[in-house]
């Protein structure tokens, strides 16, 4: 039987450009389509010019009946339902879970991250996936890639991280949004902004609806994050009005789950780690302030539904779990589930810490058919198990 390789199949071999093998390497093979092979240039000093990949070999055609015997995995773009998707901040807690879901659906996913708060460990399991590609890049610098959709998740989201370098945090929110929007405008693709419930500041209405403009201190220690995200939302809707860009904006409320950074300063990771180590559980204030906690799997589903929604659905749309708990209730639940001997201690409340935070998700239900499914107790059990197995044995504060 006569076999032949398709005429338009081009092969490019990329090299590992540093001792950090995969993390500064992109690809091994590219299947040519009507477009010329795309070239990536990264400003990261360890990366050199290299060709991107979209498939692993091999495609073999059977000449006799022109049917296809596919050996290996072919390009996702052979199928109309599959997309090439950029996720900025993909090595972070939320981004890595989003990429897992997109990759499992057969999409080609390009992760862009500079590892400021994201970690290699979060995406280690993806490096051999045929439809995954990693590019080390800072979103505050211009970029030129190809995609059908872009999820912009690049920004430190925990107080510990965004207050470490507040100016860079603002740069990431504002310049990152501008660069992502410019790229989306050139590509004429959909783009989703991962905004935040911090938009509402210390809210004066409860629960918070999307039409509420917020109560935010513009010069406080949290302002770099709050105002940066508010400015990014402004840019997204200005690009829609001025250029007709297809934008989506999600306002994300407290999210927790596996792959949370142990030193991110967020209440769930703090409490779980303290309880597992038998340390005192630190509550700021009297613990009467309330929060709503959404498990990461639910949140990811909401983001994807928003991206895939009708073009008229732009948001902002609240994504979070409307079940409300006091911080003290959360601490007691963690202690109980861990089986810890930890005691609760109280510290002064930080400046601008919100008293209440609860999403009104009426729009998400009506427009996306979305609402969270995982109860706090169940999500905590998964998170505690992750910390017990993956974090605690080798944990050293940083």
Helix content estimate: 25-40%
Find the structural class using helix and strand composition. Answer: alpha/beta
| Count of the domains | 1
CATH level-1 class: Alpha Beta
**What series of H and E elements makes up the topology?**
EEEEEEHEEEHHEHEEHEEEHEEHEHH
The quaternary structure here is single chain
Q: Give the CATH architecture.
A: 3-Layer(aba) Sandwich
- Biggest pleated-sheet summary: 7 strands, parallel
Fill in the CATH topology: Rossmann fold
What's the gyration radius in Å? 22 Å
| Number of E-type strands | 18
What is the assigned CATH homologous superfamily? NAD(P)-binding Rossmann-like Domain
Strand order of the largest sheet: 8-7-6-9-10-11-16
User: What is the approximate shape?
Assistant: globular
Mean pLDDT: 81
The low-pLDDT segments are: 1-78
Strand residue content: 15-25%
In DSSP terms (H or I, runs of 4 or more residues), the helix count works out at 9
Walk me through the structure:
It is a single chain. With about 400 residues, the protein is α/β, with parallel strands linked by helices. The chain has a single domain (about 85-390), classed as Rossmann fold (3-Layer(aba) Sandwich), CATH 3.40.50.720. The protein is built from nine helices and 18 strands. The strands form six sheets. It has a seven-stranded parallel sheet with strand order 8-7-6-9-10-11-16, with helices on both faces. The model is unreliable at about 1-80 (pLDDT under 50). This is UDP-glucuronate decarboxylase. One of its GO terms (molecular function) is NAD+ binding.
């Amino acid at each position: 039987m006569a076999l032949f390789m398709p005429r338009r199949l081009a092969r490019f071999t990329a090299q590992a450009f540093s001792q950090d093998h995969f993390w500064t390497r992109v690809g091994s093979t590219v299947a040519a389509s009507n477009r010329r092979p795309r070239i990536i240039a990264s400003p990261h000093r360890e990366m050199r010019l290299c060709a991107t990949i979209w498939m692993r070999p091999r495609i073999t055609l059977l000449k006799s009946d022109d049917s296809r015997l596919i050996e290996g995995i072919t390009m996702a773009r052979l199928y109309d339902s599959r997309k090439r998707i950029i996720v900025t901040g993909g090595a972070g807690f939320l981004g890595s879970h989003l990429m897992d879901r997109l990759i499992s659906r057969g999409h080609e996913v390009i992760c862009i991250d500079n590892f400021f708060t994201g970690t290699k460990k979060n995406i280690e399991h993806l490096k051999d996936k045929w439809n995954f590609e990693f590019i080390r890049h800072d979103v505050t610098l211009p970029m030129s890639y190809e995609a059908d959709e872009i999820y912009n998740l690049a920004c430190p989201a925990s107080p510990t991280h965004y207050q470490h370098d507040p100016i860079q945090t603002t740069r990431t929110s504002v310049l990152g949004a501008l660069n992502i929007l410019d790229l989306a405008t050139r590509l004429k693709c959909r783009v989703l902004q991962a905004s935040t419930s911090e938009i509402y500041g210390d809210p004066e209405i409860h629960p918070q609806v999307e039409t509420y403009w917020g109560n935010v201190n513009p010069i406080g220690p949290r302002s770099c994050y709050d105002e940066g995200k508010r400015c990014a939302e402004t840019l997204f809707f200005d690009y829609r009005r001025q250029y007709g860009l297809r934008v989506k904006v999600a306002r994300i409320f407290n999210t927790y789950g596996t792959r949370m950074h142990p030193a991110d300063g967020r209440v769930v990771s703090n409490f779980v780690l303290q309880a597992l180590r038998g340390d005192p559980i630190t509550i700021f204030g009297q613990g009467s302030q309330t929060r709503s906690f959404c498990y990461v799997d639910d949140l990811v589903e909401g983001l994807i539904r928003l991206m895939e929604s009708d073009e008229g659905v732009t948001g902002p749309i609240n994504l979070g779990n409307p079940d409300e708990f006091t911080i003290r209730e959360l601490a007691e639940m963690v202690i109980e589930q861990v089986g810890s001997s930890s005691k609760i201690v109280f510290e002064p409340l930080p400046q601008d810490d919100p008293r209440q935070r609860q999403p009104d998700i009426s729009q998400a239900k009506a427009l996306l058919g979305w609402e969270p499914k995982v109860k706090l107790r169940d999500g905590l059990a998964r998170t505690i198990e992750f910390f017990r197995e993956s974090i605690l044995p080798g944990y050293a504060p940083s």
